Amino acid sequence: RHPEDTAFFGHPHGLSTLFFTEMWERFSYYSMHAILLFYLIDSFSKGGLGMNTSIATSIVAIYGALIYMSTVIGGFISDRILGPRRTVFWGGVLIALGNFILVLPLRFVGLYVSIVIIVLGTGFLKPNVSDMVGGLYSKEDTRRDAGFNIYYMGINIGALLAPFIVGWVGQTYSYHAGFALSTVGMVLGLIQYCIGSKKYLGKDGLLPNDPIKPDEKAKVIKQVSWVTAIVVVGLLIMYFTHTLNVNNIIFIITILGILLPAIYFFNIFRSPKITPKDRKNVIVYIVVFIASVFFWSIYEQTMTIFPLVAQQMTDLKLFGIHVQASQFTGFNALFVLVYSPIVAAMWTKMGKKQPSSTSKFTIGLLASAFSFLVLLIPIAINGVGVKFSGWWLILSIAIVEIGEVFLSPSGLSLTTKLAPKAFNAQMMSIWFLGDAAAQSFNAQLVKLYSVPNAAMYFGVMGVVAIVIAVILFSMRGMLAKLIQL
Ligand code: GLN
């Protein structure tokens, strides 16, 4: 192999550029995730916006869903107009700008404007940078899954630093100072992206995969105008019928989040640009996609429900030290960082003998199931409503994260492998729509959680995840026949 092809831990040099770009993007996303809730609910005098807690929690959940939904827009822009390289660049610019707006004392106006800008920016950046990672490897290269595991560490270094640094600065000094740090981070990420991509990515990703042809332009403009018109008319109707409120918006986004992947798969199937082989790949993909939604549903609750569980059901102590409820979310990334090198080394060592994607997904789902089920133990021992040790929550997170390192990097890798050529970046968006669908669904589901029925809540969901895992596993032969997974 050429030295450039193994320059970054045995992987192509370009992986380091993409690694750090995504690290800074995630730093910004998880910073927002860490302090947004507190920024919303803290009183004006403490520098917050003084919002009601339940509305604020919903806004945070929906923010997460929108972040992943907007990858559809980013995928489209990349595939049809700009190509991944430039789309990622503009994504970074938008994210930095959105964070910068939050630095200014603009309160609600600043909040909503910046959410829109950051959501769009992330949609531009995240699917395309992941897609470019796939582009570093040929279809036969067995380093692909390991490469995604390394890339995934970048994601989680960003995710780990964010709550510790920005969370701390935001809550101790001022939220605006926290957002300033995210801005600086994203700007640094962009600078290294510009330099690194010129040096190491050659011509990769400079052109769109499926550029819009002149005769298609009118059609595309018409479609975009229709969608915009429907949204505007819908909002106006809601406004004049006095139904324009946060709860209704959240409900609509929930429906949209679940419908969107279905519409997407339908469109891909209908497209004349895909071959019979592509079609088989997409069938397989749909099955693993559905499995992933169940995984993400549980996983994302470790970021929304778990801080609540920490607050309401644990003693908030680790090693006898008091910890903030929000700080528990930092452990997700920490465990990924511990597991990833091991798993990446395992896949590299096993080469062609590594388990199929279906098996990796099954393990992922089982881990998510057990992470919820393990919480039944302290409830059973102590009784409902009695506070238990914070370590139980850490144990639960440690288990779900085994699932994440098995499922998520191989999901990314599989997506880049199975995507029909004309839908490369858009397929990557679909992968993230799995998380969006899960979070949209969660926005309603979390309402069922309360301390008295926590055992029921975690128990039922754990069992459902086991059932899905068993169904998936029993389909592995059939899926393997459809494609060589
Ligand atoms: N923790 C991962 C990330 O932030 C998982 C998100 C996902 O792939 N849905 O990128």
From TrEMBL:
Q: Where are the transmembrane segments?
A: 27-49, 55-76, 88-105, 111-129, 150-169, 175-195, 224-242, 248-269, 281-299, 319-340, 361-384, 455-475
Q: How does it sit in the membrane?
A: Multi-pass membrane protein
Write out the annotated subcellular location.
Answer: Cell membrane; Membrane
Q: According to the lineage, what is the superkingdom?
A: Bacteria
Where does it primarily localize? membrane
Which keywords describe this protein according to UniProt? Answer: Cell membrane, Membrane, Transmembrane, Transmembrane helix, Transport
Annotated Major facilitator superfamily (MFS) profile domain residues: 14-477
Q: Which family does it belong to?
A: Belongs to the major facilitator superfamily. Proton-dependent oligopeptide transporter (POT/PTR) (TC 2.A.17) family.
NCBIfam families referenced in this protein's UniProt entry, alphabetically: yjdL_sub1_fam
Q: Under which name does UniProt file this protein?
A: Oligopeptide:H+ symporter
Taxonomy-wise, where does this protein's organism fall, top ranks first?
Bacteria, Bacillati, Bacillota, Bacilli, Lactobacillales
